[in-house]
């Protein structure tokens, strides 16, 4: 049997993980995290929070385990959580949903994304994403043996050029993936862009997969799901997760919602990926989704404050930043320090400065790297004292000038 270019290699290759010999290399995330651990650096590379989600919600999961929620959950997820997703979509976005046919619970947003892509994308189909993109999109598009086309988000506000969007989506496009608010840039797509995505999806008969895991992490604005815009609902699978909104990234409870035909397709694939997971976490997440408005605004406010501290600290060190409108990521430009490729400074920062960050170029196609190569992504979902310590250390950035 030949192992020359099998699907796993294609998947790794799509996510830029194969070296020139076709051997998988470790990701830059693993490399930077290892350096951060070795040098006891503040790790602002990986986007995981260093605080726990609400205690009353964690207790529900503990009680559920003690009270027998330990066997397979239903394939669509427990009804209470599907009901809670519907209540949430109605409460925040005025989007009515049927919990029996229009919602499916998944193993994190990641599984919902994978199932959605595998449900609709045939080999050689085109899938359009904005660039930079969350790395799992590229890997899944590779696994589906499809063609990943990108539309660049442009500085300074990381919005796409509408003409480029129109030129990229065509009759071969099967799926358009939208991530809003956007990882890694922290930007929020304008309603004009979202409406154009909807128009193009209608024009070229595409499915929209909308990754809204950062829906509640916005600084001063309310979230607009693409499904709530005219013509959006009927074409969109909306995906979210408990990881970001409630700081339960390890629970891996996500969900997809949308019109029945699309959700039936996602559920059909999803049942052969994991079937179901997290029976004890699901009732807890149901109650998390029912938390009062102040929980969501309070958390966003706290994060916004951390982001502002970091942005001001970087600016004080002479580094230009692109202030995020949402998520917990901030983009800084190290070109002035003489680094055309931010990967170089990202590799020395843990040791020489005691702070770790991720180069933006890992989130883009190899051939498009130059446009983003001097940018670094910092995650600020950390305690205030951790950000303050990072800011203090970042004041030494000037010493890394070339
Ligand atoms: C844009 C985006 N989508 C999806 C995910 C994964 O979500 P989950 O952990 O719920 O699978 C992440 C996690 O970093 C993300 O940033």
How would you describe this protein?
- With 402 residues, the chain is of the alpha/beta class.
- Helix content is 40%, strand content 15%.
- The protein folds into two domains: 7-52 and 294-400, Aspartate Aminotransferase, domain 1 (Alpha-Beta Complex), CATH 3.90.1150; 55-290, 3-Layer(aba) Sandwich (Aspartate Aminotransferase, domain 2), CATH 3.40.640.10.
- It has an eight-stranded mixed β-sheet, with helices on both faces. The chain has a four-stranded antiparallel β-sheet with strand order 10-11-14-13.
- Strand 6 (173-179), helix 8 (191-204) and strand 7 form a beta-alpha-beta unit.
- Helix 4 packs parallel to helix 11, helix 5 (108-120) runs parallel beside helix 6 and helix 12 (293-316) runs parallel beside helix 14 (384-394).
- The structure holds pyridoxal-5'-phosphate.
- Pyridoxal-5'-phosphate binds next to helix 5.
The CATH topology of the largest domain corresponds to Aspartate Aminotransferase, domain 2
- The whole-number mean of residue pLDDT values reads 96
Largest sheet: 8 strands, mixed
Specify the structural class: alpha/beta
Enumerate the strands of the largest sheet in spatial order, edge to edge or round the barrel.
2-9-8-7-6-3-4-5
Overall helicity? 25-40%
- What would you give as the CATH superfamily of the largest domain? Type I PLP-dependent aspartate aminotransferase-like (Major domain)
Strand content: 15-25%
């Amino acid at each position: 049997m030949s192992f020359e270019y099998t699907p796993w290699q294609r998947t790794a290759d799509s996510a830029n993980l194969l070296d020139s010999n076709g051997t998988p290399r470790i990701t830059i995330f693993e490399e930077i995290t290892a350096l951060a651990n070795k040098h006891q650096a503040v790790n602002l590379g990986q986007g995981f929070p260093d605080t726990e989600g609400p205690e009353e919600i964690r207790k529900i999961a503990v009680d559920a385990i003690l009270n027998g929620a330990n066997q397979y959950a239903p394939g669509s997820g427990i009804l209470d959580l599907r009901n809670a997703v519907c209540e949430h979509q109605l409460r925040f976005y005025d989007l009515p949903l049927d919990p029996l046919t229009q919602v499916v619970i998944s193993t994190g947003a990641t599984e919902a994304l994978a199932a959605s892509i595998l449900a609709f994308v045939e080999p050689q189909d085109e899938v359009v994403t904005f660039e930079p993109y969350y790395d799992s999109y590229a890997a899944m598009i590779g696994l589906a043996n499809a063609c990943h086309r990108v539309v660049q988000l442009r500085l300074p506000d990381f919005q796409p050029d509408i003409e480029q969007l129109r030129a990229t989506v065509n009759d071969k496009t099967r799926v358009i993936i939208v991530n809003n608010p956007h990882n890694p840039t922290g930007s929020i797509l304008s309603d004009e862009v979202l409406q154009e995505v909807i128009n193009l999806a209608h024009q070229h008969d595409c499915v929209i997969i909308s990754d809204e895991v950062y829906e509640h992490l916005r600084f001063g604005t309310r979230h607009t799901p693409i499904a709530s815009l005219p013509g959006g609902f009927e074409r969109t699978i909306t995906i979210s997760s408990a990881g970001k909104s409630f700081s339960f990234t390890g629970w891996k409870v996500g969900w997809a919602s949308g019109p029945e035909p699309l959700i039936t397709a996602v559920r059909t694939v999803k049942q052969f990926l994991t079937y179901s997971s997290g029976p004890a976490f699901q009732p807890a997440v149901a109650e998390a989704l029912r938390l009062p408005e102040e929980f969501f605004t309070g958390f966003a406010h706290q994060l916004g404050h951390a982001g502002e501290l970091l942005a001001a600290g970087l600016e004080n060190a002479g580094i230009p930043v692109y202030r995020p409108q949402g998520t917990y990521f901030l983009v800084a430009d190290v070109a002035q320090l003489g680094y055309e490729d931010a990967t170089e400074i990202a590799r020395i920062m843990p040791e020489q400065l005691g702070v770790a960050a991720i180069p933006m170029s890992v989130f883009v196609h190899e051939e498009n790297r130059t446009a983003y190569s001097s940018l670094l992504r910092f995650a600020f979902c950390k305690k205030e004292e951790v950000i303050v310590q990072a800011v203090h250390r970042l004041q030494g950035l000037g010493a890394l000038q070339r």
